[in-house]
């Protein structure tokens, strides 16, 4: 039986200790730990990497603290448009959705696309129609309403500005500057298979149906049993231009770099050269985990069958 590992993230960016109340910090740590525990239980019972990463993301999508699912930010039009992707490293099967509305768990819909659609990527109304056909749970607009996200959108909705993620008014403390709200998970299961999944509500006040890197296979999400599974969070445009997730796999496959080395090269050299801020999590074919960021913080955690069980917020 192979070693098994789950790694998760809940977004990166300007996440500073001095901007965080103890109450809020504890809430984030609790949310991360719960997602780790639920997904680790899947692996511990012999479940697949795909089911483990999906389980982690369902919990994070249901947690209003994170910009995905229920906690998704408001677009220019004052609605939520969500993106998600999942990939199975054993056969390179993948499913992704972009610009979906009212879907409680976009990662569930991405999984349905992977398993039951004969396609990889569905968007907008078509993706929603497919959700209805597959019986994926929908929620009314009110489910996705949170006052602090609404206040944050209201402050910039009449401008052409967009915001990378949330400033918290109603969570006791104002969190300033740039935050990239995305949730993600990567896993290696006891059979040695890898999987990756990513989900996001995108950017506050985004226009034109903007899509970031999260649902783009190879940019924000990638898994291949030969090399690694990667989930990214950051300024999506730069991650797309760098094909960031797949580049880690390439550096491992063709240059023989380790997971840690490949991730550091992409995050701290390639992305930095384009002023791309953020981070990524990864797990390799041997079950090694890595979490690399070039921003001030990244909500993240790792748990494996050797007793490692840690969550982190700051760099």
TrEMBL record:
Molecular function per GO: hydrolase activity, acting on carbon-nitrogen (but not peptide) bonds, in linear amides; peptidase activity
Keyword Protease in annotation: yes
Record PANTHER family: L-ASPARAGINASE (PTHR10188), N(4)-(BETA-N-ACETYLGLUCOSAMINYL)-L-ASPARAGINASE (PTHR10188:SF6)
Binding site for substrate: 210-213, 233-236
Protein name per its UniProtKB record: Isoaspartyl peptidase
Entry keyword Hydrolase: yes
Superkingdom, natural source: Bacteria
Record keywords, A-Z: Autocatalytic cleavage, Hydrolase, Protease
Residues with site note (Cleavage): 181-182
InterPro entries: Ntn_hydrolases_N (IPR029055), Peptidase_T2 (IPR000246)
């Amino acid at each position: 039986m192979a070693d098994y590992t789950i790694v998760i993230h809940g977004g990166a960016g300007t996440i500073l200790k001095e901007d965080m109340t103890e109450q809020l910090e504890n809430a984030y740590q609790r949310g991360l730990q719960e997602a780790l525990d639920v997904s680790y239980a899947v692996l511990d019972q012999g479940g697949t990497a795909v089911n483990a990463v999906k389980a982690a993301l369902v919990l994070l999508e249901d947690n209003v603290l994170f910009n995905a699912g229920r906690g998704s930010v408001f677009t220019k039009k004052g609605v939520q448009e969500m993106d998600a992707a999942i990939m199975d490293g054993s056969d390179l099967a993948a499913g992704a959705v972009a610009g979906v509305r009212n879907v409680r768990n976009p990662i569930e819909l991405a999984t349905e696309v992977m398993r039951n659609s004969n396609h990889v990527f569905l968007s907008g109304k078509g993706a929603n129609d497919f959700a209805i056909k597959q019986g994926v749970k929908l929620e009314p607009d009110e489910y996705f309403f949170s006052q602090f996200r609404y206040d944050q959108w209201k402050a910039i909705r009449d401008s052409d500005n967009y915001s990378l993620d949330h400033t918290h008014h109603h969570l006791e403390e104002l969190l300033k500057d740039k935050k990239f709200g995305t949730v993600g998970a990567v896993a290696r299961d006891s059979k040695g298979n890898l999987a990756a999944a990513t989900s996001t509500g995108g950017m506050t006040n985004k226009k034109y149906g903007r899509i970031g890197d999260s649902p783009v296979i190879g940019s924000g999400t990638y898994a291949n049993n030969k090399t690694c599974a990667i989930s990214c969070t950051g300024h999506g445009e730069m991650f797309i231009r760098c094909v960031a997730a797949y580049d880690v796999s390439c550096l491992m496959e063709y240059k023989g770099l380790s997971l840690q080395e490949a991730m550091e090269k992409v995050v701290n050299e390639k992305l930095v050269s384009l002023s791309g801020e953020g981070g990524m999590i990864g797990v390799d074919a041997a079950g090694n985990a890595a979490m690399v960021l070039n921003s001030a913080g990244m909500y993240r955690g790792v748990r494996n069958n050797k007793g490692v069980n840690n969550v982190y917020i700051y760099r």
